[in-house]
Design brief:
Blueprint (H helix, E strand, L loop, with lengths): L2 E6 L7 H14 L5 E4 L2 H6 L3 E3 L7 H9 L19 H13 L2 E8 L1 H16 L5 E6 L15 H19 L6 E7 L6 H4 L14 E3 L7 H14 L2 E7 L31 H13 L2 E6 L13 H19 L5 E10 L2 E9 L24 H7 L11 E2 L2 E2 L9
Parallel strand pairs: 1-2, 1-4, 4-5, 5-10, 6-8, 6-9, 7-8
Antiparallel strand pairs: 2-3, 10-11, 12-13
Helix pairs in contact: 1-3, 1-10, 8-9
Bound molecules: 6-O-phosphono-beta-D-fructofuranose (F6P).
Length: 409
């Protein structure tokens, strides 16, 4: 038996199912007998909660729908495997289940936290001389994975963010009195996604006034004073701010508000409320109308505006992962290498998982303006190819059609 297993982990994206399809289809094409899917990632695997993907992906229509369906088809988890030392029982259990399922290759589609899982399983597998191959398939809207040029999921999220920003800018200009809109964008400690708001600017759009990335220290008082300056000359002000901006003392700006903190298994605080906090400060000081616009999960599940290039690359990364495993590679992550900008072209390569797990790739400071209120053209130039072209949803009854593994329990 030549069975493989695939899981999805961490925050979802609009194209993560395209990577799932890339793994499924390529594994089948290369002669895999059963392609298992882990339900809710490694956490589900520990409960032996797996599905035979062939029972869910039966024909071309299923495949077309799967790649157009946002979020993780198999369900996800934010589950950190414990240190091997002292927790061998957990690893024994996982390998026992994998052996029972006769797995020879294990694929995990995820970001830098999820690659920690691939790294630990690789290390334990080596320790016990297991022949199972472990391969990471990159994914995250945050685009903060090391080595790879970018991550699948980022382009579609950036496309949604830029398009939505254009719409917010038009909306903001409708009245004859001032409105300050603060758009809060995901991305944790990396500003790649927030930078996508810069793409709104063009011959038909004024663009945002300021962009604040977490790579630079954020000063709330300076921000409020700057809004005062902008209000002297503008009727509508639109600001893009990352959920991860921090003040000089290292505290997230969203922590300055009174919301309750949730912390996940990787120790990440839930970052939300930055826009609300800042908009409140501006309203309090200047008595103007403000809007706090938290893009939240909208930006990572907007499959109705997938970037075609992103869908293709997500699929290719899944396929490249399978190819690498079938060629005997293990302990690796598929990466994208930009070989040309004009025309844009990326190829897949492989990197050692130890160089990627738990590493956060930030926006280079030379791509941010000195005063930290905007991004430079180099950053726009980097993002632009990644949002190109579209995939049309399959519309049913006026809405995009999706597939789901289970109806909600
Ligand atoms: O997956 C990364 C991410 O999208 C971050 O940008 C964001 O901070 C986080 O997920 C939110 O995750 P959750 O769904 O666990 O709240």
């Amino acid at each position: 038996m030549k069975n493989v297993i695939v899981g999805q982990s961490g925050g979802p994206t609009a194209v993560i199912n395209s990577s799932l399809l890339g793994v499924f289809k390529t594994a089948k094409d290369r002669g895999a007998d059963i392609v298992y899917g882990m339900v809710h990632g490694i956490k589900g695997l520990l409960d032996k909660d797996v599905v035979d993907l062939s029972s869910r992906i039966k024909n071309d229509l299923d495949m077309d729908l799967l790649k157009r369906t946002p979020s993780s088809f198999l369900g996800s988890c934010r589950y950190k495997l414990p240190d091997i030392k002292g927790h061998e029982d957990v690893y024994e259990k996982i390998f026992k289940i994998l052996n029972e399922l006769e797995i020879f290759a294990f694929f995990y589609i995820g970001g830098n936290d999820s690659m920690d899982t691939i790294m630990r399983l690789t290390d334990y597998g080596k320790k016990i001389n297991s022949p199972i191959r472990f391969v990471g398939v990159p994914k995250t809207i945050d685009n903060d994975l090391a080595i790879t040029d970018h991550t699948p999921g980022y382009g579609s999220a950036a496309k949604y963010i830029a398009a939505t920003t254009k719409e917010i800018i038009r909306d903001g200009l409708v009245y004859d009195y001032p409105v300050v809109s603060v758009i809060e964008v995901m991305g944790r400690n990396a500003g790649w996604l927030t930078a996508a708001c810069a793409l709104a600017k063009g011959e038909d759009c004024e663009g945002v006034d300021d962009i604040y990335l977490p790579e630079k220290v954020f000063d709330v008082d300076k921000f409020v004073a700057r809004m005062g300056e902008l209000l002297k000359e503008n009727r509508s002000i639109v600001i893009a701010v990352s959920e991860g901006v921090k003040s000089a003392d290292g505290r997230y700006v969203c922590e300055l508000s009174d919301h309750v903190d949730y912390v996940d298994a990787f120790g990440h605080k839930q970052l939300a409320g930055t826009a609300r906090f800042l908009a409140g400060k501006v309203a309090e000081k200047y008595g103007v109308k403000t809007r706090a616009i938290e893009l939240s999960s909208l930006q990572r599940c907007a499959a109705h505006i997938q970037a075609r290039i992103d869908v293709t690359e997500a699929f290719n990364c899944g396929g490249a992962g399978v190819k690498a495993a079938f060629e005997g590679k293990t302990g690796i992550v598929i990466t994208l290498k930009r070989v040309s900008d004009d025309p844009y072209m990326c190829i897949t390569e492989v990197a050692d998982v130890h160089d990627i797990a738990n590493v956060e790739k930030k926006v280079p400071l030379e791509w941010i303006t000195e005063d930290g209120t905007n991004v430079k053209p180099e950053l726009v130039h980097y993002i632009l190819p990644l949002i190109q072209a579209e995939i049309t949803p399959l519309w049913v009854n006026g809405l995009p059609r999706h597939v789901r593994l289970h109806a909600k329990k």
